[in-house]
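It is worth pausing here to work through a concrete case rather than discussing structure prediction in the abstract. The textbook approach is simple: state the sequence, then state the predicted structure, then interpret. We follow exactly that order.
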Amino acid sequence: MEVPIRTLNNGVAIPMIGYGTWQLTDPKVCYDSVLCALEAGYRSIDTAAGYGNEDSVGRAIKDSGIPRKELFITTKLNNPDRGYDSALKAFDISMEKLGLDYLDLYLIHWPGRSNYIASWKAFEKVYAEKRVRAIGLSNFLKHHLESLAQQTDIAPVSDQLEYHPYIAQAETESYCKAHNILVEAWSPLMSGKVALADPVISAIAQAHGKSNAQVILRWHLQSGRRTIPRSVTPARIRENIDIFDFSLSLDEMAAINALCVKNTRSGPHPDEFALD
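Step two, the predicted structure:
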């Protein structure tokens, strides 16, 4: 199994599938799940200060025995820490909890109203100091991206958006593609909700002898999106990365794309959440 690699707009390579750790608040469950993911072949782990599990993730990374240079680790700035000085302090705390000498990707978790500009200036500083290999965003819509571009010097390498078959992010995704910003799908399986039971996806899965989850993850990859599924069940952790031995046809891709008109979120709207 070979996970596809994408070269970001700053030349750094990133695996196109990673293991997500949202909601893994129990230290043992998080530790065991991350270890399982690494053993299954994941080499990218996604966490966040707001998840409260960076220390558990860090211990699993260390105990895995996998050379650091083979891993791609992402964490995110917590909402209360937005701002220049507070973001710099938060970065230090995250690095200490993770037990890392450098980070591969640091993201602003939510835009809020305006503090993301000051936060991004702090990101530019740690990037210039080579403490992080790439800097990006999470939950930034087109208007946030345009504002950031007008007021800062370094372009983000990625934007992590809620993206699954029941929601389209067409406007923001088009902007990202035009500016060589990688779109990452969080909640790629809609947090295990109704999209996983959709009859259209079920029919496609049956035709390929795959699970609904595998079909959805394959749809993301063939659409050019990086994806970060999460599960605490070892069999599903392994299943979610076993998606490289089949392809969806153009008709199958179109059928899944058509489901996006439902426009149903599993998380909050970025313009309405974690405002300054």
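Step three, interpretation. The chain has a mean pLDDT of 95. The two ends are 44 Å apart (CA to CA).
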